[in-house]
Amino acid sequence: MVDISKLKPKGVYWWLQIGGWFFYILTAFFLNQFRGVTLNFTFTFSLFLAFLIGVGLSQTYREIIIKLGWINLNILRLVPRVLFGTILFSLLFEFLYFGITYLLFFYGDTIEWVVVFQEFLGWEILFLLWSMFYFIFHIFRNYKNEEIKNLKWEATKNEIELNKIKSQLNPHFIFNAMNSIRALVDEEPKKAKKVITQLSNVLRNNLMIGKKKFITFQEELVLVKDYLAIEKARFEERLTYKMQIEEDCFDWFVPPMMVQTIVENGIKHGISKIPKGGELKINASIVEGRLNVKITNPGTFNKNSKPETGFGIANTKERLRLLYGTESSFSISNFDSKTVETIIIFPPIKYQEP
């Protein structure tokens, strides 16, 4: 059996032509049998002849449609051309069909022009139906191709935007880390050297992970811990952190540096502005088949204040939109008067290493 889905467009149309005319001949055969027409050589040959002429003329008609560009015309310009084309090919069909059968089987008999006209009307109806199905099929095929093209374009556009956002992550992260080191250089040179070593390890891991669209949540937590180690050296007792992670969360795929960016945002806009500092908490669990990550830190969130929204929030929202559409969610709010709560929900995805 031929798998039409694997054929090229030209092959698809050929098989549709053959299948359509075969269905018509088969229907005509059973209708005539029902009416009591005797099955003989003349009757069988007439059906076979109609099949050959039908396939040949409809394929020729299709080639003319393509060559003259009818498929690109609007409906007002298309209708009169289709009417003219179907009449022309119906006349040609009847001329060939009647001419051949008359010469072979009925030569010398009186020509019944009413019957000839009725046959012509039958072919006209067939060609009109053929034209309708052809243009509907073509419109549907073009629509699907255009839809695929738009999806590919949208995917390319999203990929460009994602790469642009990811290219902003490393400089932003390095800038904040270098500020932390700068604060230690004069006061504690030895600690500053240690933090520089930690930063180099973070950047090495980050460069490898940054090439991927997704990493496991466990890999993301390694980045978060490395970053917190750098900030801990800077803030000392002013920064404490706690992680409560369910075991099922570790193999979940998430965008790289997304949780780390929110942690960074919480320290920069929350803990660093509080003289006594505070504790940052990260909780992760699987709820209703989705990874829920909750990050809490001391501070106050003001959605109307642009500086407070920070790079991290805008970046995270945009990346989630590009990667998941409406399947993920992000929220940040004041849990109480002294605590900010950020919740990211990641849907499940199937991902393989590139």
Shape: rod-shaped
The largest sheet is: 5 strands, mixed
Biggest β-sheet: strands ordered side by side in the sheet: 2-4-5-7-6
The CATH architecture of the largest domain can be named as: 2-Layer Sandwich
What features would you describe in this structure?
The chain has 354 residues and is α+β, with helices and mostly antiparallel strands. It has two domains: 8-150, no CATH class; 188-346, 2-Layer Sandwich (Heat Shock Protein 90). 65% of the residues lie in helices and 13% in strands. It has eight helices and seven strands; from the N terminus they run αααααβαββαββαββ. The protein has helices spanning 9-34, 41-68, 75-105, 113-185, 189-209, 217-235, 258-269, 306-324; strands spanning 215-216, 239-245, 253-254, 278-287, 290-298, 329-336, 339-346. Strands 2-4-5-7-6 form a five-stranded mixed beta sheet. It has a two-stranded antiparallel ribbon with strand order 1-3. A hairpin with a 2-residue loop joins strand 6 and strand 7. The longest helix is centred in the middle third of the chain and has 73 residues, at 113-185. It is rod-shaped, with a radius of gyration of 36 Å. The two termini are 37 Å apart. Residues 1-9 have low confidence and may be disordered.
Short structural description:
The chain has 354 residues and is an alpha+beta fold.
Keyword list:
single chain, 354 residues, Heat Shock Protein 90, 2 domains, 5-stranded mixed β-sheet, two-stranded antiparallel sheet, 7 strands, rod-shaped
Strand-helix topology:
Elements: H1 9-34, H2 41-68, H3 75-105, H4 113-185, H5 189-209, E1 215-216, H6 217-235, E2 239-245, E3 253-254, H7 258-269, E4 278-287, E5 290-298, H8 306-324, E6 329-336, E7 339-346
Parallel strand pairs: 2-4
Antiparallel strand pairs: 1-3, 4-5, 5-7, 6-7
Helix pairs in contact: 1-2, 2-3, 3-4, 4-5, 4-6, 4-8, 5-6, 6-7, 7-8
